Amino acid sequence: PPDVVPQAPEDPLFGLMRAYKADPSPNKVDLGIGAYRDDNGKPWVLSVVRKADEILRNDPEANHEYLPIAGLASLTGKAAELLLGPSAPAISEKRVASVQTISGTGAVHLGALFLAKFYKIDGVHRTVYLSNPTWANHHQIFTNVGLPIATYPYFDKETKGLDFEGMKRALADAPAGSIILLHACAHNPTGVDPSPEQWREIAALMKEKKHFPFFDTAYQGFASGDLDRDAGSIRLFVEQGVELVIAQSFAKNFGLYGERAGCFHFVAAPSSDAAEITSRVASQLAILQRSEISNPPIYGARIASIVLNDQALFAEWQENLRTMSGRIIAMRQALRSKLEELGTPGKWNHITDQIGMFSFTGLTEAQVLKLRSDFHIYMTKNGRISMAGLNTRNVEYVAKAIDKVVRE
Ligand code: PMP
Fold first, then answer.
1. What ipTM does the predicted assembly reach?
2. Residue nearest ligand 1's atom 2 by CA
3. CA atoms of 238 and 89, how far apart (whole Å)
4. Residue 33 to residues 50, 209, 257, 275, 377, Cα–Cα distance (Å)
5. Ligand 1, atom 12: nearest CA belongs to which residue?
6. CA–CA separation, 3 vs 264, rounded Å?
7. Which of 51, 160, 252, 370 is an active site residue?
8. Virtual CA dihedral for 38, 358, 397, 378, nearest 10 degrees?
9. pLDDT per position as a tens digit, 252-289
10. Distance CA 94, CA 270 (A)
11. Domains of the chain
């Protein structure tokens, strides 16, 4: 029937991108993009990715066969090590089940699907608690698999930092065994992360309440430039000996956005039957994967695998990560100091306090729209800016424009 499918709204982020592309102004600035740009405002192919690509193209053995259902084993094993540390007991005790997915989105989806099928307490689904705000797609992914969702306080509008008390209260009030979605580092959209001490408190509180941690990690190494440091939150939980899952994306840290490389990991709590539980989980993940995508895409997985399995390339990757995270940190400092020089009303310390690709500026929707109409500067309506869209040539223009709209 013609009237049963209503028109859905356009994805706001992709709509923003379209509006930016259509704008003929030479001054336009795209602060909506969720992808890294170099100082010339151009996409950056990591030098290490170019090298891996070269190796792959010259490999006479390479072909276009299917991968196994769980993906490229030389990638998934190293991917788990990257998150948990190469000598993690969880790995040696065979308590980790890893499946290659369609980037981070596919990993979140596979995890959601798995929990919808198997995570019930007394026959009832537990609610998934998402930070307020969170990456908008989380809402749709969990809702689409039929899991109930709720939010926990996260961003404090006053301090533009973490509402830690609000978050803890919500975790304490949530029914035991609730699924709690956590951004491992570089929270999207706020750029606000708990401190290591706060993570410890969160982990202890969640363990006490028997909540189920669902980590989403899309920015490992991209946030601080240090892969181990950016995995600190996850390692802390794993060391607590709790069962958890992790959705891992290689889009940002390898610059492999369109290649859709990522992994989903299940980590069992230590016990005498942990390895057996893990093997059962892996068997079920394989069935879900088979019915959804059969097997994951091969090209990006091979690139990431070549880098992760070669010491020299791995070192070069770390250098590339420092280049990207370093430029972003420099842009945070530049924007903050320009706003402070201009004496723009308000405090701007949050720009350098927040980390990762995004910053929640605190600009109102009206100010955001004015920046778009009067200055051709594009950002999401919630005032989130992508630091990657700033460069040495446009940061002053952006600061002056923000200064003007804030004073109005
Ligand atoms: N989770 C978060 C929090 C993200 O910001 C992103 C990327 N925007 C993803 C997951 C997944 O991205 P992708 O599917 O491109 O790996």
1. 0.99
2. 218
3. 9
4. 23, 38, 12, 41, 12
5. 104
6. 38
7. 252
8. 100
9. 999 999 999 999 999 999 999 999 999 999 999 999 99
10. 10
11. 12-45+325-407 (3.90.1150.10), 73-309 (3.40.640.10)
